[in-house]
Amino acid sequence: MVTRNRRTFILHAAGLCAALTTAGRALAAPPLVDESDTTAKSLGYRAKASSVDTGKFPKYQAGQRCANCRFYTGTAGDAAGPCPMFPGKAVSADGWCNVYAQRA
Ligand code: SF4
């Protein structure tokens, strides 16, 4: 009986570990957008807004950054967060792209 209880405990513990590992992966931060990504290039995305190529993207104005863009859904104070222009990835709070729109 003791052996069976021990085996049951081990099986439950293994199941719990597997569940926690899966949950940990789900909570892991998404990868940052790579500036050389095709979408990033076409939108003029830069991780540092101050490095935007204003020759190609003259819409950029100093002070504009992902953190104050209406499309940014990251938490205030975080270094990066989600943006629907880059599904499954995170944009830098200090970033910028040509779709920028001032948050109301
Ligand atoms: S849409 Fe806004 S939040 Fe998204 S990358 Fe462009 S500037 Fe940043």
Question: How would you portray this structure in words?
Answer:
This protein is mainly α and 104 residues long. It has 2 domains: 1-29; 31-104, High-Potential Iron-Sulfur Protein, Chain A. The chain is built from 2 helices and 2 strands, in the order ααββ. The protein has helices at residues 2-27, 38-43; strands at residues 80-82, 90-92. A two-stranded antiparallel ribbon has the order 1-2. The relative contact order is 0.18. The mean pLDDT is 86. Iron/sulfur cluster is lined by residues 45, 66, 69, 71-72, 83, 85, 91, 95-97, 99-100.
Taking the alpha carbons of the first and last residues, their distance comes to 66 Å
The biggest beta sheet is recorded as: 2 strands, antiparallel
Radius of gyration over all CA atoms, rounded = 21 Å
Question: What string, H for helix and E for strand, traces the elements in order?
Answer: HHEE
Structural class label: mainly alpha
Features:
104 residues, mainly alpha, High-Potential Iron-Sulfur Protein, Chain A, two-stranded antiparallel sheet, 31% helix, elongated, binds iron/sulfur cluster
